[in-house]
Amino acid sequence: MSRERIELRPGDPEAEARMRALSSPLRLRVLRLCAFEARTNKELAELLGVNPGTMLHHVRTLVGTGYLAAEAERTGAQGAREVPYRATGLSWRTSMPGGAHVLVETFLQQIEGLTDDDLDTTWLGLKLNDAHREELQERLFALVNEFKERGPDPDGETYSLFTVLHPDRNPPGAGAGPHLRQSAPETPDSAS
Length: 192
Description:
By secondary structure, the chain is of the alpha+beta class. The chain is 38% helix and 13% strand. Strands 2-6-3 form a three-stranded antiparallel β-sheet. It has a two-stranded parallel sheet with strand order 1-7. Strand 4 (74-75) and strand 5 (81-82) form a beta hairpin.
């Protein structure tokens, strides 16, 4: 399976607008909140602890760049007009310079306040040639994309998956094998 990505590069006004839209952890969190459920500006502002006027600016930016789409208007409390928004999925296929650091910052904001029991973490060191690194990337992408393409389970809970493959600046000593570190502490029975 090929990783059909939309590469955003400086110089194209539309690409630059999309890069600005995705350069904010807050906007990425808005996209996450609107992935499975359409939400109004007011709901988003309350969920993220932001002034509704500020949120409206972010929502309009995401709508204007195709990352959010407005759904049919509805009547809210006291007959107020509400416009719910849903993520279009475009950000899933978008790649841009500097985007990785924004995703890491967004991830850190997302997990703030979660307990260790809420986080299933793995840290693995590998030594791979280019072909095996590419194979790993393609297989991970294919697996994640398979679950994404299934669509949400009606009876499911929402989860977030964050993966990062990067050069190891602190490799283990020569001759050492792969190392695995998980968030769950070792128990006396598992240490052998």
